[in-house]
Amino acid sequence: MHELAITEQIAAIAIKHGEKNAAQSITDLYLVIGELSTVIDDSVQFYWDLITENTLCEGAKLHFQRIPALFICKECGKEYSLIEGELTPCPNCQSNQMEILQGKEFHLDSINII
Amino acid sequence: MVKNVSIVEKVHSANDQIAEEIRQRLDNSSLFSLNIMASPGAGKTSLIERTLKELHPHHKIAVIDGDLATSIDADRAANAGATAVQINTGGQCHIDANMLQKAINSLDLDSFDLLLVENVGNLICPASFQLGTHKNVLIASIPEGDDKPYKYPVMYQDLDALIINKIDLLPYVDFDMSYFEKGVQLLNPNLVTFPVSCRTGEGIEPWISWLAGWIVSKTT
User: Fold this and answer.
1) Quick check: helix, strand or coil at residue B34?
2) Does residue B6 fall inside a structural domain?
3) Does residue B38 lie within any of the structural domains?
């Protein structure tokens, strides 16, 4: 729902680093998005072309690396993922006590420039 | 020639940086602050009115209200005795740190000891934008249903307090409290919870004590 604001931030970060590296153009952006981060790639893509017109990012391609959610049970140590998209108690011991190991990431990993 | 430039920068870094500045300013003014989130109609403004009624005689309170449009909520807070600032987000589904900073600039922070930020009614987006406020509070309400923790897990994860409002409606709706609480447990095991009715005033007292305790810890 707030993908426009997010897309603007992605462009701003890429342009900042592109300028710092004297880029003539930014050709590719590599984004890392965790499964729990509520960011929708399709919506980011939708806004991308509109907001990057006449900027260093014009025509740049977006690449999304999805990181699956991973939890660890604090009781028995079992690692598990979302089950059919839903968070569940530990499938091994049914404990509610768990910690998120990964899945909340949302960052710009690197860019390609010419 | 194509060159790869490593960045590894959080997409929210610009927002998070402003949030840090806000936190610094609030701390410098010994001001305790809450980010109050909920779905539309859960009772954010009603809770603020109740809270003002109890705390206004003892504390100086500012309220910043975020809405897509209108100043209805800020007017209600002002009528209840607070200094109120309205942020109209112009369609944006959440308050971000930049908007909050602008609103804060219009307040003399040193003259308050509590700041309540009423976020836009939404269970998704506000969870992604840090504001620099001290505690995140969610108001869940009975008529919304008992499945909300399962459907909006991100919102429940980073909470410091949960208010369950409209408990006076429990006899009239299908709300399985143990199912709801199980979902909350799963996401946020040690979350402090206040079942209340803003309409009748039931359960408000423990919430006020919790809040007053934090205000005092900041000002002393």
Assistant:
1) strand
2) no
3) yes
**B193-210 burial: b if 16+ Cβ within 10 Å, else e:** bbbbbbeeeebbeebbee
User: What ipTM was reported for this prediction?
Assistant: 0.84
Residues of B with CB under 8 A from a CB of A: 1-15, 92-94, 96, 122, 124-125, 127-129, 150, 153-154, 157, 182, 185-187, 189
Domains in chain A with CATH codes? 3-113 (3.30.2320.80)
Residue B40's domain comprises 13-219
Which residues in A lie closer than 8 A to residue B15 (C-beta atoms)? 9
pLDDT tens-place string over residues B154-164? 899 889 999 99
B59-76: pLDDT as tens digits: 999 999 998 888 888 999
At B63, list the tokens: 């309220």
Q: Residue A63 corresponds to which tokens in the numbers above?
A: 């690449």
Q: How many domains does chain B have?
A: 1
Could you tell me the CATH number of the domain that includes residue B184?
3.40.50.300
Along chain A (114 residues), what's the average pLDDT of each consecutive run of 10 residues?
A: 85 96 97 89 91 96 95 94 86 89 94 97
Over residues B30-34, the mean pLDDT reads 97
B/e letters for A15-38, b = 16+ CB within 10 Å, e = fewer, are bebbeeeebeebbebbbbbbbbbb
Local structure of residue B92 (DSSP, 8 states)? -
